[in-house]
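quick one before i forget lol
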Amino acid sequence: MTRTVRVALFGIAARTGLLPGAALALTASLAAAPSQAQTAQVGSIDVCISATCASAQQAGQIGAVSAFGTLLSTQGGRALLDANMAAVEAIYATSTPHEKSIAVPNSEDIFDPPAISDHIWKMVPTETGTVMAALSEAELLPQSVVDLLNVPLNGTLQIGAIKDFYSTANIYGRAYGLLPGHPGAALDPRPYLTSAAIADMPWSKIAGVPEHLADNQKEQWQENEAQPAFQSGHTTAGYTTALLYAVLLPEQYQPLMAAAQDFGVSRNVLGLHYPTDVIGGRIVATYDMVQLLSNNPVYSPNFGDAIAGASADLHAMLGSTVSTPYASCAGGVANAAGCIAEGTFPDASSLAAANAAHIAAITYGLPSVGPTTDAPIVPLNAETLIATRFPYLSGEQRRDVLASTELPSGVPLDDHATGWARLNLYAAAGGYGSFETDVSVTMDAGRGGFNAIDFWGNDIDGPGGLIKAGSGTLVLGGTNSYQGGTTVAGGVLALSGTLGGDLTIGEAGAFIDGGGYQVNPGASLINDGTFVSVVGPLLNAGVMVNAAGGTVIGDVVSSGVIENNGLISGSVTNSGRLAGTGTMAALVNAGVVAPGTPGGLGTLSVSGAASFTAGSVYEAGIGASGQSDRIAVGGAATLGGALELVAAPGALDVPSSYTVLVASGGITGAFSSVNDPFGSVYPFLDLSVDTTTTTVTASAVPDTATLTSGWGTENQNAVAAALADHPEADRLLTAASVLDYETAGLAFDQLSGQIYPATLTVMQNRSATLRGAIGDRLRQADDALGSGAGPATAALAPGLEPSVWMQGYGYWGDTDASANTAELTQDTGGFVAGADAELTDGLRLGFAGGYGSTSYAQPALGASASMTSWDLAVYAGAGLGPLALRFGGAYGWQDISTSRTVTMASFGDALSGDVDGSTGQLFAEVSHEVALGITRVEPFAGLAYVAADLDGAGESGGAAALAIEPGSLSNTYSTLGLRFAAPLPILSEALSLRGGLGWRYAFGDVSPVSTVAFAAGGDAFTVVGPAIGRNTALLDLGASYRFGQALAADISYSGAFSDNGQSNGLNGLLSVRF
């Protein structure tokens, strides 16, 4: 059976004078007898009223202020109690008439929801506070709000149980002692019972205090003498009311927290409570409200669920008299910027002062007890207290807000375990106090309220950073020093305080600076969205990148680096470095301006005027095809300072003109200095600058002075001197002008035509082949160092026995490179054929002819040639016993074809030429044969004169083609050596081995020289080719075989090893006697 009864929640009797009206009659639906009731219903809210619940509530609330019971056990606790007394005496003595006038009414009907609401709201100095006080006084509050207030005020708060529990320890009585004349005073006596300074000065003795106030104080002193002091039930009720309203009307959060503390101080003003009583009341109220908001079933399983509806009822009743703070500043960049400009938001110093004042108020400046540096502790579910204040944060983020704003450990009544005493909800309502990790905030403006706009007033520090996303507006008002940087991914982030560190603005984001932001050294600003500087210019001492889609509204003063590829609506005063391809309204450059982007050329635009101070630098890149960096000025340009041009990587075109500045409004002044932009990268380029009334143009031209300064080898310098005489627009000269020293060296060697003087070297080297073949034949005919008697012959005429012979040969070798010439490789093959006869005893006369083909090249220069030779020679040999004399003369004709490649920068030519040449030589040798057993040894000495001549010729194929003047190289060679021969009868009587060693010396000029000129015109120049060897070691090894009396054959290896090269060859000689 269900019946309706009238009950007081928990059935706990109120102390006389302490809890008037606490036994509020409620209608409860009971499923059993009243003694078995478990739940009472307050409106739609279920409240647990069982003894078990009451016991759990008492234990929790008593535990929340457990530190009070330990104060006498530590030195720090005793010091706090001493300060506690001093504080209440000071407040009592200095309280103002106004404070006294409100302290009395604040004592009345504190557990009646309308009455306590009236008390609290009258202490809230806002329009909403005034309206709410009137509604409360008229008892017009929404019933849903009254129901919510009734639950803690007349249900779950266990004030009497807390007083009873701690009175047994008599903390105050033991610490302060009881004044005489109060035999009925309770344990834990109140200040007017322990302090003579208070007791001896009731309001009735204070001039100016109205009589009714003094009478009321007297009555309260009398009524509360038997009531323990700790904790203040009035404060608990006041804080409970303020906390609930802060949740229902979070727009008034901070004023309500301040009002709650002021309400508690009223108890100090009356001399009824110590500061620790007020602090205890705040802690108990906070603990109780968290249990209710989190639907703790020991309190109420659905209290928290009723918050949204009651809040909606309250907002509907208040209408326009309550709104989100700074709601007019929401709605986009323009509104927020306007509010920043008008100073709508409080400044950082006043915010910090307010925070400090509140901390001083809620702690009373009392000393700490125990460690003060413990890690933050956030009580379980405490985040519910600020859930409506920060609807866009997650529960974990709200806990971080509480942790980052809490009081330090050791504050009065901190138990160093639960964190209840440390909560600073006034500061928490101002947002984060620290970013321990990166914090991401997403605000949806479409949801209105704090999602549309919010203001964080704390000084935020910590290692983390802030990521602002969503369409809403967030304003930072404190002095912020967090280290993790700031990212505005969407919406508006405004700054009325200060901020440093890295700032990144996304395409959908905007940042509004009220003058407290600057890019510090080492920090960066990356803007892809909108940056608005409202108060004063943006100061940049770090790196600022305004991307192509970025807009900076306002002026910029920079001593750091700016890369502007977007729009800066104001002027830029630059004493650092400014780059990019964007636009700005005006420019004052006292630093370096370098248009373009890294690795690329571009135009930086100034819509208004631009000026360059005396110490400034304009750094402009130049590239191929006349492309360059440029500053385009819409207004007037005033020039000064230095113009520094930077040659971009890659080939440049010469001559080229680069327009580096254009000013539609005209140019005054000029750049005072212009650098050499080319340096060692382009050492053969020079620069000239022309300033007109509207343009500044730089022109790149060949630097003939450097070209002819003797920078290279003899051949390279000869080419350079010839090129310097060419017109500036000449293809060869312009191509050469964009080379550096290294590439110019190779290119100029290619241009020099070394292959032509090298041809003279080849002709000199080849002449030894003919001399050697004739010498081999004469020694064979004389059987000198041969393999026995020569073949028998038949006489053509009395005493005339002719022989026909032929020798084939093949040689290969190279001449080393020198500092001035490239390596020369060559190989040759051919034959020599002749006929001779012994005219008289010991005298032989003959003639010979030959053909040879030689290929030679200078691979490093891309040059090669082929030579075809025809030779005629006459020779003779005479024997005088062991002495032998051999001599002769020869003349050869050469037909030469050359091929060369010239490559430099963007220039390239493939060239060819045909040249005729001739070689004449005279030679003689004397030897003496000595027999040493079966071995014969022949010391010898030789002398030869060789003259090589080239006819004049011309190349074809392009601008680098050469005209070759006739040239020659003549030299006299001496040769000293030793030959030996021995038969090998063990194998055959017809076989013998032979060999020789020798030293050849060249007496004349060993370096060939050709005079050439570029076919397109210009002066002739001389080119030195690879030298012939001055000293050469000769080595011969061979074998001879006689085929009867008529036929003989020789095969041999010949090597020549000079001081600058070598040659190796194989020869085969066949002779036939008739």
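fyi Confidence is low (pLDDT under 50) at residues 1-36, 784-796.
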